[in-house]
Specification:
Elements (H helix, E strand, L loop, with lengths): L5 H20 L5 H10 L4 H25 L5 H20 L4 H20 L14 H18 L4 H10 L5 H26 L7 H20 L5 H21 L1
């Protein structure tokens, strides 16, 4: 199908911008939100996957730069997760699923993302204990494969684990998630490029919209001003879109 229909383009771009503001405020690229928005408008998986990965890259570059400058990024914690995820993200990106399987997997990922947005955890700085490499590498591998396969960056699942097991603090988790999403999205997009034909049209406009939203959201993230109302709206969108994708399979 055509990427943009004039009657729906403004509404789609508005949802993309809202998702970028919300997700970037907590250190994420926003892929699950972008996928939800595109699913609501019936876009094809061939468009959704590369578009979500590309938006992830640009948004998380901005988020990571701001959080790193603020001193929240921990290389020693990040590297084992990255070592496990990068090869598997490339494999997942190169793996082409049929449309039905893709919709089921992404639909379930969107519903899980809804849980993540409602889940309110907080790392306790006096109890932080980074995981061993024997734990971090396999966790990174599983999340990296799912990232490349679906176009979801993986941070939406990594950050709750970081907080649940007290592997880092809240802001530290945002920085690790941003870096994890960035590298997985690059690897996934590289894998996609090895098997894809012509690049889908219209992606630059989606990227520009997401980046504009991230300019605001990343500033909110550094100041720890998470917009709860946007969080509620996006959760509704994720539930509707996830259910719709599964029902279309």
């Amino acid at each position: 199908m055509v990427l943009f229909d004039p009657a729906m383009s403004f509404r789609l771009l508005a949802l993309i911008a809202i998702a970028a503001v919300l997700y970037s405020s907590v250190g994420h690229g926003g892929a699950s939100g972008y996928l939800a928005a595109m699913a609501l408008f019936g876009m094809e998986p061939a468009i959704m996957k590369p578009a979500a990965l590309t938006m992830n890259i640009f948004v998380t570059m901005l988020v990571l730069a701001r959080l790193t400058r603020a001193g929240y990024f921990n290389w020693r914690l990040f590297l084992p997760f990255a070592a496990g995820s990068l090869p598997l993200a490339f494999v997942g990106g190169a793996w082409t699923l049929n449309a039905s399987a893709y919709r089921v997997i992404v639909g379930l990922a969107l519903l899980l993302a809804t849980w993540r947005l409602f889940w309110q955890g907080a790392g306790s700085s006096d109890r932080v204990q980074p995981p061993s490499a024997w734990i971090a590498v396999p966790v990174g591998a599983v999340l990296g494969f799912m990232s490349g396969l679906t176009g979801v960056g993986g941070g939406i699942f990594l950050s709750p684990l970081l907080l649940l097991f007290n592997w880092t603090t809240m802001r530290g988790s945002a920085a690790i998630a941003a870096a994890f999403i960035l590298l997985n999205s690059i690897a996934g997009l590289a894998g996609y490029a090895t098997t894809a034909g012509a690049w889908p049209p219209g992606i630059p406009l989606l990227v520009a919209t997401a980046f504009a939203g991230a300019l605001l959201g990343s500033e909110l993230g550094v100041r720890q001003l998470a917009p709860w109302r946007l969080r509620q709206v996006l959760c509704v969108v994720l539930v509707i879109a996830g259910t719709k994708m599964i029902s279309m399979a």
